[in-house]
Specification:
The protein has 381 residues and is an alpha/beta fold. It has 13 helices and 15 strands.
């Protein structure tokens, strides 16, 4: 079976993890700070904070921005559920902004309309979470300007986006956001097995997320109530969580990040072949904005309306090609239906879902495998 995504693990990766296993520190050692430094280097952000998952980092980012009971957080309905769940963890209310039907990314026009209506109803969100679907940056300048004009903070969910750029600046530099979140799940651009990182240029936000990821505990003398108690002493200053990244995860990330550029280049090379071949068919490829460079976590196509997507999906799977669908709209999940959302609430997101199909894409995908995928899809269409 050709998977839709697959990690690339080298001998150097294995050696890096093995070295940590043979060291004195399996957690809270030097590897996590080093990984954070590497993330700052590749994004040009001032601060990076690592945790055990991107879901944890989304939660911490919301908390750092003061999201609490009664607040509203808006995100995209075309995303993994974590982009919405993070607000609920804080006791806040969640709502969605419809997407562009051809990109799956948050639509600035839909956002502007929704913000105007929310202001009139005195229900503006505290935080907005646009999602860089498939690694393609949202139109962040337009989104940021709208958010700032209404006093809304912004978290970029760039779980798919490490290694990409927007307006010639790396995703994660936080030019148009308060915080950016990356994921390092095995099928992402680089992996730490599980893991996530937040970048920010705000020292206060970074310190808040650092505190909250480890039980709210600190040993920083400058903020301690009893700094002279002794070297054994620590203080809890907030109700935090055990969201720490392990040394094993960080060591894998420190090795993988050396291949970030080559991974993204290979993904884009494979996509160029997909786009050229699929242009011969009535298939729309989901591509990034003209002023951006995608990390291409996913290769998504939109099938013609007359095509039976489920039949195509099942036939491709039967041919040992693990196509996928990203994503079933969050507002239509049973949990969210029980919160009052309904079908047709976000018609563009539902259109995107009904037509999208994810084709295999990962750096080790061979020319022969890609040819087989394309030939099989062409035959079915």
């Amino acid at each position: 079976m050709i998977p839709y995504g697959r990690q690339n693990i080298s001998a150097e990766d294995i050696a890096a993890v093995t070295a940590v296993l043979q060291s004195d520190c399996l957690t809270q050692g030097p590897q996590v700070p080093l990984f954070e430094q590497h993330i700052c280097a590749v994004t040009s952000a001032k601060f990076a904070v690592a945790a055990n998952s991107a879901t944890s980092m989304l939660h911490l980012a919301c908390l750092a921005l003061g999201v609490t009971k009664g607040d509203y957080v808006w995100t995209s309905p075309i995303t993994f559920v974590a982009s919405a769940n993070c607000a609920l963890y804080c006791g806040a209310n969640i709502d969605f902004v419809d997407v562009d039907r051809y990109t799956g990314n948050m639509c600035p026009k839909a956002l502007e309309s929704k913000l105007k209506q929310a202001k009139a109803q005195n229900r503006l969100p505290k935080v907005l979470i646009p999602v860089h679907m498939a690694g393609h940056s949202c139109d962040m300048q337009a989104i940021w300007l709208l958010a700032k004009s209404y006093g809304v903070r912004v978290i970029e969910d760039a779980s798919h986006g490490i290694g990409g750029s927007y307006q010639n600046r790396k995703i994660g530099t936080c030019q148009y956001s308060d915080i950016t979140i990356f994921s390092f799940h095995p099928v992402k651009i680089i992996t730490t097995a599980e893991g996530g990182v937040a970048t920010t240029n705000d020292a206060v936000l970074a310190e808040s997320m650092q505190l909250l990821r480890s039980h709210g505990i600190t040993k920083t003398p400058q903020i301690m109530l009893r700094p002279d108690e002794g070297d054994w002493y620590y203080e809890q200053h907030a109700l935090g969580f055990n969201y720490r990244m392990t040394e094993l995860q960080a060591a894998l990330g420190n090795s993988q990040i050396n291949r970030l550029v080559s991974f993204v280049e290979q993904r884009n090379k494979l996509v160029a072949t997909y786009v050229a071949e699929l242009a011969k068919l009535n298939v729309t490829c989901v591509i990034p904005l003209d002023n951006s460079y995608s990390a291409y976590h996913l290769m998504i196509v939109l099938l013609p309306g007359h095509v039976d997507r489920k039949a195509i999906f099942e036939a491709m799977r039967a041919a040992d090609i693990c196509v996928h669908v990203h994503y079933f709209p969050v507002h239509l999940q049973p949990y969210y239906l029980n919160k009052g959302f309904a079908e047709h609430d976000f018609p563009e997101a539902e259109y995107f879902y009904q037509h999208c199909l994810t084709l295999p894409l990962f750096p080790d995908l061979t020319e022969q495998e890609q040819g087989y995928i394309l030939d099989t899809l062409k035959g079915l269409l």
